[in-house]
Amino acid sequence: MKLDYSEFMGIIIRCYSLNTVIVGSGAAGLNAADRLYNFGQKDIAIVTEGMNKGTSRNTGSDKQTYFKNSLTAKSSDSIYATAESLFLGGAMDGDIALVEAALSAQCFYKLVDIGVAFPHTVYGEYVGYKTDHDPSNRGSSVGPLTSKMITECLEHQIRNKDITVFNGYQVIAVFKDTVSDKATGLLALDLNNLEDKQNRYVVFNCTNIVYAVGGPAGIYSTSVYPDSQYGASGIAFEVGVKGKNLTESQYGIASTKFKWNLSGTYQQVLPRYVSMEPDGSDVREFLTEYFEHPSEMLNAVFFKGYQWPFDSRKIKNYGSSIIDILVYNETAIKNRKVYLDYRTNPWKEKEFDFSSLCKEAYGYLSNSGALFGNPIDRLLHMNAPAYELYKTNGIDLKSEMLEIAICAQHNNGGLAGDIWWQSNVTHFFPVGEVNGSHGIYRPGGTALNSGQVGSTRAAEYIAAVYKEEPPAIKEFLSICCDQLEDKIHLAEKWITNSSKESNVMKRREALQRRMSQYGAHIRSKEGIAGIIHTAKEELDHIDSDIIIKSVKELPEAFRNRDLLITQYVYCCAILDYMETWGDSRGASIIYDGQGELPLHKLPEVFRFRLSVDEHKDLIQETCYRNGKCTFNWRLVKPIPNEEEWFEHVWKKFRNGEIVR
Hints:
Elements: E1 2-8, E2 11-23, H1 27-38, E3 44-48, H2 55-58, E4 66-67, H3 79-87, H4 94-102, H5 104-113, E5 139-140, H6 146-160, E6 164-167, E7 169-177, E8 182-190, E9 201-211, H7 234-238, E10 243-244, E11 249-255, E12 260-261, H8 265-268, E13 272-276, H9 294-306, H10 322-333, E14 337-341, H11 359-367, H12 375-382, H13 384-392, E15 402-411, E16 414-415, E17 428-430, H14 446-465, H15 473-496, H16 504-518, E18 522-523, H17 525-540, H18 542-545, H19 554-580, E19 589-596, E20 618-625, E21 628-635, H20 646-654
Parallel strand pairs: 2-3, 2-9, 3-6, 9-17, 18-19
Antiparallel strand pairs: 1-2, 4-5, 7-8, 8-9, 10-16, 10-20, 11-12, 11-15, 13-14, 14-15, 20-21
């Protein structure tokens, strides 16, 4: 890595030149850095707003799942079978599904080797369990904080290798060579030196960018993403990186005081659902108003554990996602507060009877030795760490109820990439959640597998193909001159126009509210069109309309800009889906006046028409240029099923023909 100082617009700018910059310090970003180093490319650095920020470090569930191939003696699993499970989720390319399956065991065992304590039997078999949208027992876990432990172990590898980490740097622009459509570098704010004009801006001149910034959490108000996670998809869209399946996200029941997914055991112990007015009055167990029989309600709650993400297919006939609909109706429509109560069994008006459960629910609790007591007793018996997690964070489920909402949790879509995770803009590799490798559905825990596989593939490709040094600093600045000038001019204008009255956070809150209200799991054409109009208006006037209090708010102003671009592109993609198809699929329902209401007691906003075939063989691609979006619907690529002769593969491998 080489450091130069260059004068630009009267400002001295630090310019670092190196082969690869990894943006982000989550599980995918850290693994990319570690893999690059191990593959021999050591001219690298990590750029992060904070090593301990982001989703990987700060999120989880009852026992956060890592998806992998089945690795037990009696398993009949195969790489192709795993790929099929991924592919059958719909709108997923088969070649990417095969890569994620093929590298699953390798990436899993690497994590084991560096200290992630996944459980195994006395014989060394890494046992698994069934997760949502997966027919086999491919899930594993180290407990509620699986991804946190992964990042900690990977960070230890990074520190031991003395890989450079730029901690406290916010990337505000991606640069590309518009002639060759190649990524060339980054502009970042040094968050530790914002008030020093001569040290405020840092430029990275690099051959490659591994983009591990996470999902677009910042566009939602009701979200289980950690407060430290925002995403940065907008500045990638800005330079022409394509979006893929942007319509497909995951939403589910989560706690709001302490943000955490309430899947698995949190539901399987059968808590009581309670709602009340904001002032605490009119407390009632509201689910009982919609279910005729306790068995229907208890089964729906139990299956929320297996089927945690909201699923439009599981609403009718008292499916598990009717619970999400009823919670949303209480919170968003009726403006009431909703809680889970683990202190008392549900349906208090009738005697609690385990025998009323369906065979699967009864068998699960019976095999777990949990056919007794109240929900808290069952939780402590089945998964004590799940209780301790809340206790550690100031919530004692033994003595208080847990406030909940339906929250944005994960983006199945994102930035497009090929089987090496390289985008259409060459030398730019989106990895982790920001990469849209998944489609409509995905087995629980596949996000962690995908992040490790994708970052491994990107590192392998860079180390084998893109080894060259970046251009000389003068050449680099000449390529990026207009892009750099545009961003610095915008920043200095905001600083010059600063005022005592800031509107940055007000604008942010409004942006997030409209997305959660109209662009999350309950959607309407009218609502989405309104978001698009407002976001476009704000983007067109952002240079003059954003007012910051001081230079300290400059990072938040740039974040608003990124989130506006992201929201605009995502909602344009959603509207395109509505105008092309109009039916409901996956993790959202679209209002349809000719559709059906799940329950006659529910308001009109929940009327929808379920998709028959879900258009699972098609992928939507989105391109954002000059403030407008264009779309392409293409067929998914099938899962490759070629017979490979060992000697042929060996020869190609020796000749370096595999990485292409």
